[in-house]
Amino acid sequence: MTHLTRRTTALLATTALAVLGSAAPRAHAADQMEIMERQIHAMQAQLSAMKKEHAEEIKRARAVLAHQREEAENNPYGTRAGMIGQNGKGSWAVAQPTLAPARTAGTPYGEITGTPAAHSSLYGPLRRGQIQVGGVRITLGGFAEAAGIWRSRNTGSDISTGYNAIPWGNNPTYNMTEFRQTERQSRLAALVEGMISPKLEADGYVETDFQGAGSASNSRQSNSYVLRARVFYGELKDRADDLQILGGQNWSLITLYNKGLSARDEQVPLTIEAQYVPGFNWTRNSQLRVVKGFDNSRYHVALSVENPSSVPAGTPLQSNVTYRVTGTNVNNPDTWYATDIAPDVIAKVAADPGWGHYELTGILRFFHDRVSTNGAGQNQTTVAGGGGGGMILPIIDKKLYFQASGLAGVGLGRYGTSNIPDYTFSPTGAPKALPAANLLLGIYGNPTKALKLYGYAGAERVTSREAFTSGGKGYGYGSPLANMSGCNTELATACAASSNVRTVAQATAGFWYDYLKGDYGTVRIGAQYSYTYVDSFSGVGGRPHTDDNMVMMSLRYMPFN
């Protein structure tokens, strides 16, 4: 800057001399022109030198800032000793925070689970829970949980309730309560991000918990349950064109979103219950997804091609119908896999016009089996699908929200949280999609900064029977000839209710409270109560039903948030 000041002074002196020269006695015209030209050239040279020095000063300043940022990113705790000093009383005190505050996904579910943000900035400062490795930034997330569960019926479930396993009155467990303690919903998460160019970003995200069960897993002594992949995907985000491409295992596109259609912006219920609420539409499975935004990301359209796995019900009339196969190689040999012929195709349109979030969804599915006879056979395919939508409305901004979502069509049972069947069999042995409808209503809010309340009511229903009679025997789903006479008699075997479920409904409410929150994470306490009602289609002996009351408690430590 000293050089720049001297140059400026010289330029002013030259200008003054030019003015004085013009006031001198008139000389020869040619001499005056020559003098003026020399003066102009001198001024131009001085101005060029000033510009060059100014550019060099800016370059040096940027280099210093870049070096400081690189040091902070490579060793964010390197200056910690300078920021922690000893006060006059001999105790230690933090002068200022070493890292910026942590950020979670901007959704209610992201806040209570420590999910990394969907819209991060790789040019901002490092935050708590982040690590910089060269040009790649790693964000850690998740929580450690100790949970307690009480149910009025013994389902044999852990933190994820098997709604289709709630016992009927003929089962002794109908009259037995259940208590369990579990840590298996504890979650580990990591987001890895890097900028390929100023407008092109690549990232990968993995989320795991311990709700997997191996062949030797049990709760008798060592609780030897296994790690499982909840989500694991990679993304390419083109910010210039507002385009996102995702591949891997993630929440299905059919899931309601809180805003936009970006991964980790899903609107998942806030329950402790890891099977969520009946009426909530979702899966987590392998997929290839494309999302395109318009009008500064106020509107989005998306298409997702997702791994199929249909759920059949009933016994076909024919004896040789192949509609599922046993797992081999790396698939689970103790379960079956559907014989679907093509992926599920899901399309969605989302709008965030300024007040609320709105969605319209459509789905297409393809069920497939083969009916064989001696020396021949025939493949049969049934096309199923439906549509629905959802919305989130800020009744009181940042304080109280209402949400609603629904899905209706044929062959949609897999996408409901209760896992009601997708199809049964027609008289020819072909898949016969079951008509179904799911609905979820919810309300949630923050009466105080530390307290979050929520309540949901939802239901899933097979809306009509798909049954026929042959030789005086009922086939299909919901047959009026199904024997229900023993469903309320303990140890009776005449109860076909579990294979002809019509409705699963639930009402639930709960809270989350931030007990402690600071530089070393958050300690969060939660509680939830739910009442679940299940009934079947009527048959011989009436229409049975069952229910379950559940209470869950949770203590979570979120070290990175």
Number of strands: 27
Q: Given the C-alpha coordinates, what overall shape results? A: elongated
In the sheet with the most strands, the strands line up as 4-6-7-8-9-10-11-15-16-17-18-21-22-25-26-27
Structural class: mainly beta
Largest sheet: 16 strands, antiparallel, barrel
Low-confidence segments: 16-24, 79-97
If helices are DSSP runs of H or I spanning 4 or more residues, what is the number of helices? 4
Strand content: 35-45%
* Average residue pLDDT: 88
Determine the fraction of residues in helical runs and give it as a percent range: 10-25%
Q: For the CA atoms, what is the radius of gyration?
A: 33 Å
CA-CA gap between termini: 44 Å
Description:
The chain is mainly beta. Helices cover 14% and strands 44% of the residues. The chain has 4 helices and 27 strands. The chain has a 16-stranded antiparallel β-barrel. Strands 1-2 form a two-stranded antiparallel ribbon. The protein has a two-stranded antiparallel ribbon with strand order 13-14. A hairpin with a 4-residue loop joins strand 10 (284-294) and strand 11 (299-306). Helix 1 runs antiparallel to helix 2. The radius of gyration is 33 Å and the shape is elongated.
In short, what is this structure?
With 561 residues, the protein is mainly β. It is built from four helices and 27 strands.
Any descriptors?
about 550 residues; mainly beta; 16-stranded antiparallel β-barrel
List the helices and strands and how they pair.
Elements: H1 2-23, H2 29-74, H3 80-83, E1 84-86, E2 92-94, H4 108-113, E3 130-133, E4 136-151, E5 178-182, E6 187-197, E7 200-212, E8 226-238, E9 243-251, E10 284-294, E11 299-306, E12 321-322, E13 324-326, E14 336-338, E15 344-351, E16 357-373, E17 376-396, E18 400-410, E19 423-425, E20 431-433, E21 435-445, E22 451-462, E23 466-470, E24 473-477, E25 501-518, E26 521-536, E27 545-558
Antiparallel strand pairs: 1-2, 3-4, 4-5, 4-6, 4-27, 6-7, 7-8, 8-9, 9-10, 10-11, 11-15, 12-16, 13-14, 15-16, 16-17, 17-18, 18-21, 19-20, 21-22, 22-25, 23-24, 25-26, 26-27
Helix pairs in contact: 1-2
